[in-house]
Amino acid sequence: MKHVNKIIIAVLVVLAASFASCKKKEQVVLPPTPGNEFLTTIKWRFQNVSNPNDTVWCAWRDSTLLSKPYKDTIHPIARLHANTTYSLTVHIYDETQTPALDITTEIGVQRANYHTYWFFPSSGLGSPLGGSKTSGQGSSQGSTNFAITPYDKDTNNPPLWIGLSDKCVTGSACTATCEGVLRHQPNAKNGTYAPGSSDSDVSMQVIID
Amino acid sequence: MKSQIHKFKKEIQKSICNKIILYSIFAMLTSASFAQTEEENRTKNFIGVMGGASFVYGNLSNTNYWKSDGAGGVIVDKAAGYSAKVGSNFGIEGAYYFSKYVGIGGAFSMTTVNVGNLQSMSSGYQYDFDVDTAIASSTTRYHFYNFFVGPYFSLPAKKFTFDLRILAGLTEAYNPEFDVNVIDGGKPHPFAQNVSHGAGFGMQTGLAVRYALAKHFGIKLSADYYYADPNINITYSNRVQQNTGRYLTNYHESVGMLNVNLGLFYQFGK
Fold first, then answer.
1. Cis (ω within 30 of 0) for the bond into A158?
2. 3-state helix, strand, coil in chain A (%, to 5)
3. Which residue in B121, B190, B248 sits closest to A27, CA to CA?
Protein backbone atom coordinates (compact mmCIF):
# COMPACT_ATOMS: atom_id res chain seq x y z
CA MET A 1 0.00 0.00 0.00
CA LYS A 2 2.90 2.37 0.78
CA HIS A 3 4.25 1.63 -2.66
CA VAL A 4 0.92 2.59 -4.21
CA ASN A 5 0.76 5.85 -2.24
CA LYS A 6 4.23 6.80 -3.41
CA ILE A 7 3.25 6.29 -7.04
CA ILE A 8 0.07 8.34 -6.64
CA ILE A 9 2.02 11.16 -4.98
CA ALA A 10 4.60 11.07 -7.77
CA VAL A 11 1.90 11.34 -10.43
CA LEU A 12 0.26 14.23 -8.60
CA VAL A 13 3.61 16.04 -8.47
CA VAL A 14 4.06 15.58 -12.22
CA LEU A 15 0.55 16.91 -12.88
CA ALA A 16 1.12 19.90 -10.61
CA ALA A 17 4.43 20.64 -12.31
CA SER A 18 2.85 20.55 -15.76
CA PHE A 19 0.09 22.88 -14.60
CA ALA A 20 2.53 25.23 -12.88
CA SER A 21 4.63 25.40 -16.02
CA CYS A 22 1.94 27.63 -17.47
CA LYS A 23 3.54 30.61 -15.70
CA LYS A 24 5.44 32.69 -18.18
CA LYS A 25 7.88 35.54 -18.14
CA GLU A 26 7.46 38.48 -20.47
CA GLN A 27 9.33 38.04 -23.68
CA VAL A 28 10.96 41.07 -25.22
CA VAL A 29 12.92 40.77 -28.39
CA LEU A 30 15.02 43.50 -29.93
CA PRO A 31 15.73 43.08 -33.62
CA PRO A 32 19.13 43.74 -35.15
CA THR A 33 19.55 47.21 -36.58
CA PRO A 34 19.25 47.10 -40.37
CA GLY A 35 21.32 49.20 -42.75
CA ASN A 36 19.49 52.43 -43.61
CA GLU A 37 19.68 54.52 -46.72
CA PHE A 38 20.85 58.11 -46.41
CA LEU A 39 18.58 60.78 -47.82
CA THR A 40 21.47 62.79 -49.19
CA THR A 41 19.73 64.49 -52.07
CA ILE A 42 16.33 66.08 -52.47
CA LYS A 43 15.23 67.35 -55.85
CA TRP A 44 12.15 69.36 -56.71
CA ARG A 45 11.06 69.16 -60.31
CA PHE A 46 8.67 71.83 -61.61
CA GLN A 47 7.09 71.14 -64.99
CA ASN A 48 4.95 73.84 -66.55
CA VAL A 49 1.55 72.28 -67.22
CA SER A 50 0.98 74.56 -70.25
CA ASN A 51 4.46 73.99 -71.62
CA PRO A 52 6.03 70.66 -70.66
CA ASN A 53 9.36 71.78 -72.10
CA ASP A 54 9.50 74.40 -69.36
CA THR A 55 10.96 72.23 -66.64
CA VAL A 56 12.89 73.47 -63.62
CA TRP A 57 14.96 71.32 -61.32
CA CYS A 58 16.36 72.46 -58.05
CA ALA A 59 18.40 70.10 -55.92
CA TRP A 60 19.61 70.13 -52.34
CA ARG A 61 22.51 67.93 -51.34
CA ASP A 62 23.75 67.11 -47.88
CA SER A 63 27.20 68.62 -47.51
CA THR A 64 27.88 66.59 -44.39
CA LEU A 65 27.36 63.22 -46.03
CA LEU A 66 28.66 63.88 -49.51
CA SER A 67 32.35 64.60 -49.87
CA LYS A 68 31.95 66.92 -52.84
CA PRO A 69 28.48 68.42 -53.03
CA TYR A 70 27.85 70.79 -55.87
CA LYS A 71 28.08 74.35 -54.66
CA ASP A 72 24.82 75.36 -56.31
CA THR A 73 22.96 72.60 -54.53
CA ILE A 74 23.91 73.64 -51.02
CA HIS A 75 21.75 76.70 -51.55
CA PRO A 76 19.38 75.56 -54.32
CA ILE A 77 17.17 77.96 -56.22
CA ALA A 78 13.89 77.36 -58.05
CA ARG A 79 13.18 80.13 -60.56
CA LEU A 80 9.52 79.99 -61.61
CA HIS A 81 7.16 82.04 -63.74
CA ALA A 82 4.49 84.09 -62.04
CA ASN A 83 0.84 83.03 -62.34
CA THR A 84 1.73 79.64 -63.74
CA THR A 85 0.61 76.14 -62.89
CA TYR A 86 3.34 73.53 -62.44
CA SER A 87 3.38 69.85 -61.84
CA LEU A 88 5.72 69.47 -58.86
CA THR A 89 7.38 66.16 -58.03
CA VAL A 90 9.80 65.45 -55.23
CA HIS A 91 12.73 63.07 -55.88
CA ILE A 92 14.85 61.54 -53.15
CA TYR A 93 18.26 59.92 -53.63
CA ASP A 94 21.01 58.27 -51.66
CA GLU A 95 24.16 59.48 -53.38
CA THR A 96 26.50 57.82 -50.92
CA GLN A 97 26.00 54.75 -53.07
CA THR A 98 27.36 54.21 -56.54
CA PRO A 99 25.37 54.51 -58.67
CA ALA A 100 23.10 56.87 -56.76
CA LEU A 101 20.09 55.07 -55.34
CA ASP A 102 16.70 56.54 -56.23
CA ILE A 103 14.51 55.90 -53.18
CA THR A 104 11.57 58.01 -54.32
CA THR A 105 9.48 54.99 -55.27
CA GLU A 106 10.34 53.20 -52.06
CA ILE A 107 9.11 56.13 -50.00
CA GLY A 108 6.30 57.24 -52.28
CA VAL A 109 4.82 53.82 -53.00
CA GLN A 110 6.10 51.01 -50.80
CA ARG A 111 6.34 53.15 -47.68
CA ALA A 112 3.77 55.77 -48.55
CA ASN A 113 1.40 54.78 -45.76
CA TYR A 114 3.61 56.38 -43.14
CA HIS A 115 5.37 59.13 -45.06
CA THR A 116 4.20 62.66 -45.82
CA TYR A 117 5.99 65.49 -47.60
CA TRP A 118 5.24 69.01 -46.40
CA PHE A 119 6.00 72.45 -47.88
CA PHE A 120 6.33 75.49 -45.67
CA PRO A 121 6.97 78.70 -47.67
CA SER A 122 8.33 81.65 -45.74
CA SER A 123 6.19 84.73 -45.36
CA GLY A 124 7.76 86.31 -48.44
CA LEU A 125 5.75 83.93 -50.62
CA GLY A 126 2.41 85.21 -49.35
CA SER A 127 -0.06 84.18 -46.70
CA PRO A 128 -0.14 80.53 -45.58
CA LEU A 129 -2.93 78.47 -47.12
CA GLY A 130 -3.27 75.56 -44.75
CA GLY A 131 -0.58 73.21 -43.61
CA SER A 132 1.49 74.30 -40.67
CA LYS A 133 3.77 72.51 -38.27
CA THR A 134 1.51 73.19 -35.33
CA SER A 135 -1.95 72.83 -36.77
CA GLY A 136 -1.14 71.22 -40.09
CA GLN A 137 -4.37 69.89 -41.48
CA GLY A 138 -5.75 69.16 -44.90
CA SER A 139 -4.13 69.00 -48.28
CA SER A 140 -3.81 72.72 -49.08
CA GLN A 141 -0.27 73.82 -48.46
CA GLY A 142 2.00 76.62 -49.39
CA SER A 143 0.99 80.23 -49.60
CA THR A 144 -0.97 82.58 -51.79
CA ASN A 145 1.94 83.04 -54.23
CA PHE A 146 3.19 79.46 -53.99
CA ALA A 147 0.13 77.21 -53.55
CA ILE A 148 0.75 73.51 -53.27
CA THR A 149 -1.94 70.84 -53.61
CA PRO A 150 -0.86 67.21 -53.25
CA TYR A 151 -2.68 64.70 -55.44
CA ASP A 152 -0.97 61.45 -54.61
CA LYS A 153 -2.70 59.19 -52.10
CA ASP A 154 -1.57 56.23 -50.02
CA THR A 155 -3.44 53.01 -49.32
CA ASN A 156 -4.51 53.83 -45.80
CA ASN A 157 -8.18 53.60 -45.01
CA PRO A 158 -9.29 56.29 -45.69
CA PRO A 159 -6.47 57.24 -48.09
CA LEU A 160 -4.21 60.06 -46.96
CA TRP A 161 -2.12 62.30 -49.15
CA ILE A 162 1.59 61.76 -49.56
CA GLY A 163 2.89 65.00 -51.03
CA LEU A 164 5.56 63.74 -53.42
CA SER A 165 3.39 64.61 -56.45
CA ASP A 166 1.71 67.99 -56.29
CA LYS A 167 0.15 70.81 -58.21
CA CYS A 168 1.98 74.09 -57.70
CA VAL A 169 0.37 77.38 -58.65
CA THR A 170 2.48 80.52 -58.54
CA GLY A 171 1.10 84.00 -57.95
CA SER A 172 2.71 87.40 -58.02
CA ALA A 173 6.43 87.94 -58.41
CA CYS A 174 8.32 87.53 -55.17
CA THR A 175 11.39 85.89 -53.65
CA ALA A 176 11.61 83.83 -50.49
CA THR A 177 12.49 80.38 -49.23
CA CYS A 178 10.43 77.22 -48.94
CA GLU A 179 11.10 74.47 -46.46
CA GLY A 180 10.39 70.87 -47.50
CA VAL A 181 10.00 68.26 -44.77
CA LEU A 182 9.65 64.52 -45.18
CA ARG A 183 7.76 63.22 -42.17
CA HIS A 184 8.09 59.62 -41.06
CA GLN A 185 4.90 58.67 -39.20
CA PRO A 186 4.90 54.94 -38.45
CA ASN A 187 1.55 53.82 -37.07
CA ALA A 188 0.75 57.50 -36.64
CA LYS A 189 0.07 59.11 -40.03
CA ASN A 190 -3.26 60.92 -39.86
CA GLY A 191 -2.95 63.82 -42.30
CA THR A 192 -1.33 66.16 -39.83
CA TYR A 193 2.27 67.20 -39.43
CA ALA A 194 2.76 66.52 -35.74
CA PRO A 195 3.04 62.72 -35.39
CA GLY A 196 6.35 61.04 -36.08
CA SER A 197 9.73 62.49 -36.87
CA SER A 198 11.45 64.18 -39.80
CA ASP A 199 13.51 62.08 -42.19
CA SER A 200 14.54 65.10 -44.23
CA ASP A 201 14.25 68.85 -43.71
CA VAL A 202 15.63 71.14 -46.41
CA SER A 203 15.14 74.71 -47.57
CA MET A 204 15.29 76.00 -51.12
CA GLN A 205 15.06 79.50 -52.46
CA VAL A 206 12.03 80.21 -54.63
CA ILE A 207 12.16 83.11 -57.08
CA ILE A 208 8.93 83.94 -58.85
CA ASP A 209 9.28 86.45 -61.64
CA MET B 1 -59.82 -45.55 -0.08
CA LYS B 2 -60.52 -41.87 0.67
CA SER B 3 -57.50 -41.67 2.96
CA GLN B 4 -55.31 -43.18 0.22
CA ILE B 5 -56.55 -40.62 -2.29
CA HIS B 6 -55.96 -37.78 0.21
CA LYS B 7 -52.45 -39.07 0.91
CA PHE B 8 -51.72 -39.27 -2.81
CA LYS B 9 -52.94 -35.66 -3.33
CA LYS B 10 -50.74 -34.47 -0.48
CA GLU B 11 -47.72 -36.19 -1.96
CA ILE B 12 -48.41 -34.58 -5.34
CA GLN B 13 -48.82 -31.17 -3.73
CA LYS B 14 -45.64 -31.67 -1.73
CA SER B 15 -43.85 -32.70 -4.85
CA ILE B 16 -45.08 -29.64 -6.74
CA CYS B 17 -44.10 -27.34 -3.89
CA ASN B 18 -40.69 -28.86 -3.73
CA LYS B 19 -40.29 -28.41 -7.44
CA ILE B 20 -41.41 -24.79 -7.24
CA ILE B 21 -38.98 -24.14 -4.44
CA LEU B 22 -36.24 -25.90 -6.31
CA TYR B 23 -37.02 -24.01 -9.51
CA SER B 24 -37.11 -20.73 -7.58
CA ILE B 25 -33.79 -21.37 -5.92
CA PHE B 26 -32.33 -22.41 -9.25
CA ALA B 27 -33.75 -19.32 -10.92
CA MET B 28 -32.38 -17.05 -8.19
CA LEU B 29 -29.00 -18.69 -8.33
CA THR B 30 -28.95 -18.57 -12.08
CA SER B 31 -30.01 -14.93 -12.09
CA ALA B 32 -27.41 -13.93 -9.51
CA SER B 33 -24.76 -15.85 -11.32
CA PHE B 34 -25.68 -14.21 -14.65
CA ALA B 35 -25.68 -10.71 -13.11
CA GLN B 36 -22.33 -11.34 -11.55
CA THR B 37 -20.96 -12.48 -14.90
CA GLU B 38 -22.28 -9.37 -16.65
CA GLU B 39 -20.73 -7.12 -13.97
CA GLU B 40 -17.41 -8.89 -14.27
CA ASN B 41 -17.47 -8.76 -18.03
CA ARG B 42 -17.94 -4.98 -18.27
CA THR B 43 -14.88 -2.72 -18.20
CA LYS B 44 -15.07 -0.63 -15.07
CA ASN B 45 -16.36 2.92 -15.41
CA PHE B 46 -13.81 5.52 -14.41
CA ILE B 47 -13.09 9.18 -13.94
CA GLY B 48 -9.66 10.73 -13.85
CA VAL B 49 -7.38 13.70 -14.17
CA MET B 50 -4.62 14.03 -16.70
CA GLY B 51 -1.90 16.41 -17.68
CA GLY B 52 1.23 16.59 -19.72
CA ALA B 53 2.99 18.03 -22.70
CA SER B 54 1.47 19.28 -25.95
CA PHE B 55 3.77 19.24 -28.94
CA VAL B 56 2.55 21.84 -31.40
CA TYR B 57 2.96 21.64 -35.11
CA GLY B 58 1.54 23.52 -38.08
CA ASN B 59 1.10 27.24 -38.53
CA LEU B 60 0.37 27.94 -34.86
CA SER B 61 4.08 27.55 -34.08
CA ASN B 62 5.16 29.19 -37.32
CA THR B 63 7.24 32.27 -36.47
CA ASN B 64 8.05 33.46 -39.97
CA TYR B 65 7.05 37.05 -40.60
CA TRP B 66 7.48 36.66 -44.33
CA LYS B 67 6.60 34.07 -46.88
CA SER B 68 7.19 33.84 -50.60
CA ASP B 69 4.55 35.42 -52.80
CA GLY B 70 5.33 32.92 -55.53
CA ALA B 71 6.64 35.60 -57.85
CA GLY B 72 10.10 36.11 -56.45
CA GLY B 73 8.99 38.51 -53.73
CA VAL B 74 7.80 38.17 -50.18
CA ILE B 75 4.56 38.97 -48.41
CA VAL B 76 3.55 38.94 -44.77
CA ASP B 77 2.74 35.42 -43.60
CA LYS B 78 -0.58 35.95 -41.87
CA ALA B 79 -0.85 32.27 -40.96
CA ALA B 80 2.07 32.49 -38.53
CA GLY B 81 0.81 32.08 -34.98
CA TYR B 82 4.11 32.72 -33.13
CA SER B 83 3.43 30.04 -30.52
CA ALA B 84 6.05 27.93 -28.81
CA LYS B 85 6.69 24.39 -30.03
CA VAL B 86 5.69 22.81 -26.75
CA GLY B 87 2.80 23.63 -24.44
CA SER B 88 0.95 21.89 -21.67
CA ASN B 89 -2.50 20.48 -21.14
CA PHE B 90 -4.55 19.58 -18.13
CA GLY B 91 -8.00 18.10 -17.85
CA ILE B 92 -10.50 15.66 -16.50
CA GLU B 93 -12.08 12.70 -18.24
CA GLY B 94 -14.37 9.79 -17.62
CA ALA B 95 -16.08 6.91 -19.36
CA TYR B 96 -19.11 4.71 -18.87
CA TYR B 97 -19.02 1.20 -20.33
CA PHE B 98 -21.94 -0.63 -21.87
CA SER B 99 -20.00 -3.81 -22.33
CA LYS B 100 -16.59 -5.32 -21.87
CA TYR B 101 -15.14 -3.39 -24.77
CA VAL B 102 -17.25 -0.36 -25.60
CA GLY B 103 -18.18 2.71 -23.64
CA ILE B 104 -18.87 6.37 -24.01
CA GLY B 105 -16.75 9.04 -22.43
CA GLY B 106 -15.94 12.68 -22.31
CA ALA B 107 -13.14 15.03 -21.50
CA PHE B 108 -12.80 18.65 -20.53
CA SER B 109 -9.31 19.91 -21.00
CA MET B 110 -7.35 23.12 -21.21
CA THR B 111 -4.30 23.43 -23.41
CA THR B 112 -1.90 26.28 -22.87
CA VAL B 113 0.85 27.29 -25.27
CA ASN B 114 3.28 30.10 -24.64
CA VAL B 115 4.30 32.62 -27.25
CA GLY B 116 7.37 31.59 -29.19
CA ASN B 117 10.23 33.55 -30.61
CA LEU B 118 9.10 37.07 -31.51
CA GLN B 119 12.41 38.04 -33.09
CA SER B 120 11.06 37.78 -36.61
CA MET B 121 7.93 39.73 -35.71
CA SER B 122 10.08 42.55 -34.33
CA SER B 123 12.31 42.55 -37.39
CA GLY B 124 9.32 42.41 -39.71
CA TYR B 125 7.60 45.41 -38.17
CA GLN B 126 10.91 47.26 -38.06
CA TYR B 127 11.30 46.73 -41.79
CA ASP B 128 7.67 47.39 -42.68
CA PHE B 129 7.51 50.68 -40.78
CA ASP B 130 11.13 51.55 -41.63
CA VAL B 131 11.88 52.52 -38.05
CA ASP B 132 14.98 52.59 -35.89
CA THR B 133 13.66 49.93 -33.53
CA ALA B 134 10.65 47.68 -33.15
CA ILE B 135 9.88 45.69 -30.04
CA ALA B 136 7.38 42.84 -30.03
CA SER B 137 6.43 41.28 -26.72
CA SER B 138 3.69 39.30 -25.08
CA THR B 139 2.67 38.55 -21.52
CA THR B 140 -0.20 36.24 -22.38
CA ARG B 141 -0.56 32.81 -23.97
CA TYR B 142 -2.68 30.72 -26.26
CA HIS B 143 -5.46 28.88 -24.46
CA PHE B 144 -7.67 26.15 -25.84
CA TYR B 145 -10.66 24.97 -23.82
CA ASN B 146 -11.94 21.66 -25.12
CA PHE B 147 -15.29 19.98 -24.46
CA PHE B 148 -15.18 16.56 -26.09
CA VAL B 149 -17.30 13.39 -26.01
CA GLY B 150 -17.04 10.14 -27.90
CA PRO B 151 -16.66 6.37 -27.82
CA TYR B 152 -14.10 4.47 -25.79
CA PHE B 153 -12.93 1.09 -26.99
CA SER B 154 -11.17 -0.72 -24.17
CA LEU B 155 -9.42 -3.99 -23.68
CA PRO B 156 -9.02 -5.01 -20.03
CA ALA B 157 -6.22 -7.43 -19.24
CA LYS B 158 -5.82 -8.17 -15.55
CA LYS B 159 -4.62 -4.92 -13.96
CA PHE B 160 -4.13 -3.23 -17.31
CA THR B 161 -6.72 -1.65 -19.54
CA PHE B 162 -5.88 -0.50 -23.04
CA ASP B 163 -8.05 2.31 -24.40
CA LEU B 164 -8.65 3.63 -27.86
CA ARG B 165 -10.81 6.74 -27.90
CA ILE B 166 -12.16 9.12 -30.46
CA LEU B 167 -13.47 12.33 -28.91
CA ALA B 168 -14.87 15.35 -30.67
CA GLY B 169 -16.69 18.52 -29.76
CA LEU B 170 -16.17 22.19 -29.22
CA THR B 171 -12.94 24.12 -28.79
CA GLU B 172 -12.86 27.68 -27.55
CA ALA B 173 -9.51 29.27 -28.37
CA TYR B 174 -7.90 32.45 -27.06
CA ASN B 175 -4.94 34.05 -28.79
CA PRO B 176 -2.36 36.03 -26.82
CA GLU B 177 -1.90 39.77 -26.88
CA PHE B 178 1.02 40.93 -28.98
CA ASP B 179 2.37 44.31 -27.94
CA VAL B 180 4.36 46.09 -30.61
CA ASN B 181 6.23 49.34 -30.24
CA VAL B 182 7.77 50.88 -33.33
CA ILE B 183 10.24 53.59 -32.37
CA ASP B 184 11.66 56.12 -34.76
CA GLY B 185 13.58 59.27 -34.04
CA GLY B 186 13.18 58.48 -30.35
CA LYS B 187 9.39 58.59 -30.62
CA PRO B 188 7.44 55.45 -29.72
CA HIS B 189 4.36 54.48 -31.69
CA PRO B 190 2.91 51.51 -29.79
CA PHE B 191 -0.03 49.33 -30.78
CA ALA B 192 -1.35 45.95 -29.73
CA GLN B 193 -3.03 42.93 -31.21
CA ASN B 194 -5.59 42.25 -28.51
CA VAL B 195 -6.51 39.03 -26.79
CA SER B 196 -9.31 37.63 -28.92
CA HIS B 197 -11.21 34.38 -28.91
CA GLY B 198 -13.28 32.18 -31.15
CA ALA B 199 -14.83 28.73 -31.22
CA GLY B 200 -14.64 25.85 -33.62
CA PHE B 201 -14.65 22.13 -34.08
CA GLY B 202 -12.12 20.15 -32.10
CA MET B 203 -11.26 16.50 -31.70
CA GLN B 204 -8.68 14.18 -30.29
CA THR B 205 -7.97 10.53 -30.80
CA GLY B 206 -5.38 8.36 -29.22
CA LEU B 207 -4.30 5.41 -27.21
CA ALA B 208 -3.98 5.00 -23.47
CA VAL B 209 -2.94 2.36 -21.04
CA ARG B 210 -4.36 2.28 -17.55
CA TYR B 211 -2.86 0.31 -14.68
CA ALA B 212 -4.82 -0.38 -11.53
CA LEU B 213 -2.59 0.23 -8.54
CA ALA B 214 -5.35 -0.62 -6.12
CA LYS B 215 -8.94 -1.73 -6.24
CA HIS B 216 -10.20 1.67 -7.30
CA PHE B 217 -7.14 3.77 -8.08
CA GLY B 218 -4.71 3.64 -10.91
CA ILE B 219 -2.41 5.55 -13.19
CA LYS B 220 -2.78 6.23 -16.84
CA LEU B 221 -0.44 7.03 -19.71
CA SER B 222 -1.85 8.33 -22.97
CA ALA B 223 -0.87 9.80 -26.31
CA ASP B 224 -3.43 11.69 -28.39
CA TYR B 225 -3.52 13.47 -31.67
CA TYR B 226 -5.33 16.76 -31.11
CA TYR B 227 -6.92 18.86 -33.81
CA ALA B 228 -8.90 22.08 -33.58
CA ASP B 229 -10.16 24.57 -36.11
CA PRO B 230 -11.18 27.69 -34.22
CA ASN B 231 -11.97 30.91 -36.04
CA ILE B 232 -10.73 33.90 -34.06
CA ASN B 233 -11.68 37.44 -34.99
CA ILE B 234 -8.76 39.72 -34.27
CA THR B 235 -8.94 43.24 -32.93
CA TYR B 236 -6.24 45.83 -32.34
CA SER B 237 -5.64 48.73 -30.02
CA ASN B 238 -4.10 51.96 -31.25
CA ARG B 239 -3.43 50.50 -34.69
CA VAL B 240 -3.49 53.52 -37.00
CA GLN B 241 -2.27 52.06 -40.27
CA GLN B 242 -3.98 48.82 -41.21
CA ASN B 243 -2.32 48.37 -44.57
CA THR B 244 1.22 48.46 -43.28
CA GLY B 245 2.94 45.52 -41.69
CA ARG B 246 1.35 42.40 -40.26
CA TYR B 247 -2.33 43.11 -39.72
CA LEU B 248 -4.90 40.36 -39.17
CA THR B 249 -8.66 40.62 -39.17
CA ASN B 250 -9.08 37.00 -38.20
CA TYR B 251 -6.97 33.95 -37.47
CA HIS B 252 -8.46 30.76 -38.85
CA GLU B 253 -5.76 28.14 -38.92
CA SER B 254 -5.96 24.45 -38.14
CA VAL B 255 -4.22 23.62 -34.89
CA GLY B 256 -2.48 20.29 -34.51
CA MET B 257 -0.83 18.88 -31.41
CA LEU B 258 0.42 15.65 -29.97
CA ASN B 259 -0.60 15.36 -26.33
CA VAL B 260 1.43 13.02 -24.15
CA ASN B 261 -0.19 12.75 -20.75
CA LEU B 262 0.09 11.09 -17.40
CA GLY B 263 -2.92 10.80 -15.15
CA LEU B 264 -4.69 9.28 -12.21
CA PHE B 265 -8.04 7.58 -12.35
CA TYR B 266 -10.66 6.22 -10.04
CA GLN B 267 -12.63 3.22 -11.24
CA PHE B 268 -16.03 2.14 -10.00
CA GLY B 269 -17.36 -1.30 -9.29
CA LYS B 270 -16.15 -4.31 -7.35
1. yes
2. 15, 40, 45
3. B121
- State the Cα–Cα distance between residues B199 and B231, nearest whole angstrom: 6
The string of pLDDT tens digits covering residues B220-259 is 999 999 999 999 999 999 998 888 899 999 999 999 999 9
Please state the length of chain A: 209
Contact of A159 with chain B, judged by CB distance below 8 Å, is answered with no
This prediction's pTM: 0.77
Q: Please check whether residues B238 and B220 belong to one and the same domain.
A: yes
Compute the nearest-CA separation of A77 from chain B (Å). Answer: 29
Is the complex ipTM more than 0.85?
Answer: no
- The letter for the amino acid at A208 is I
pLDDT, one tens digit per residue, over B98-135 is: 988 999 999 999 999 999 989 999 999 998 998 989 99
- At position A204, the amino acid (one-letter code) is M
Domain that holds residue B27: 1-41
Owning domain of residue A117 = 41-208
Residue ranges with strand state E in B195-247: 196-212, 217-230, 232-233, 236-237
| B109 lies within 8 A of chain A by CB | no
Q: Is the pLDDT of residue B26 over 50?
A: no
Count of domains forming chain A: 1
Same domain assignment for residues B37 and B66: no
Over range A148-163, report the average pLDDT. 91
